Amino acid sequence: MKQVRVRFAGFRNTDDEWVNVKTDLRERSIPLEPAECHMVNVGDLVMSFQEKEEQSLYFDAHVVAIQRQDHDATECKCVFLVRYDHDNSEDEVQCSKLCRRPSE
Ligand SMILES: [Zn+2]
């Protein structure tokens, strides 16, 4: 069973929860690993974690721009500018807030 560690906005890391990717995250999205950030390109449809006051959720978003940085496989330092499909807002997020679609 594949699980990912989720940190809820506004809570400390001691409140992190492990969630089941299959049931708790939308199907067919894969958390982006730092070593995989080069697989994301401008124009790609991704899932991005949008933090709001009431709730924080993953939403469909398109990658508008990428500021790529040199880094190792353990920590991504790139900055991804995404535009959310549902409200057209733009946000600069890091790799840890993105899920990619599996390549066909
Ligand atoms: Zn990166």
Give the N-to-C terminal Cα separation. Answer: 22 Å
Please identify the structural class as seen in this structure. mainly beta
Number of helices: 1
- Taking all Cα atoms into account, the compactness measure Rg is 13 Å
Bound ions, cofactors and other small molecules, one mention each: zinc ion
Strand order of the largest sheet: 3-8-4-5-6-7
How much helix, percentage-wise, in residues? under 10%
Element-level helix/strand string: EEHEEEEEE
Task: Describe the sheet with the most strands.
Answer: 6 strands, antiparallel
Under the CATH scheme, which class? Mainly Beta
Oligomer state of the chains in this structure = single chain
> How much of the sequence is in beta strands?
35-45%
CATH 2nd-level architecture: Roll
pLDDT < 50 stretches: none
Number of DSSP E strands: 8
Average predicted local confidence, pLDDT: 83
Gross geometry: globular
Task: Spell out the key features of this protein.
mainly beta; SHH1/2; binds zinc ion; SH3 type barrels; Protein SAWADEE HOMEODOMAIN; two-stranded antiparallel sheet; 1 helix; six-stranded antiparallel beta sheet; 104 residues; DNA-binding; 4% helix; chromatin binding; homeobox; globular
Give a summary of the structure in a few sentences.
The protein has one helix spanning 21-24; strands spanning 3-6, 17-20, 30-31, 45-51, 56-67, 79-84, 90-94, 98-100.
Could you explain how this protein is built, in words?
By secondary structure, this protein is mainly beta. The chain has a single domain, classed as SH3 type barrels (Roll), CATH 2.30.30.140. The chain has 1 helix and 8 strands; from the N terminus they run ββαββββββ. The chain is globular and about 30 Å long. Bound molecules: zinc ion (ZN). The site of zinc ion has 5 residues, from loops. Zinc ion (ZN) binds next to loops.
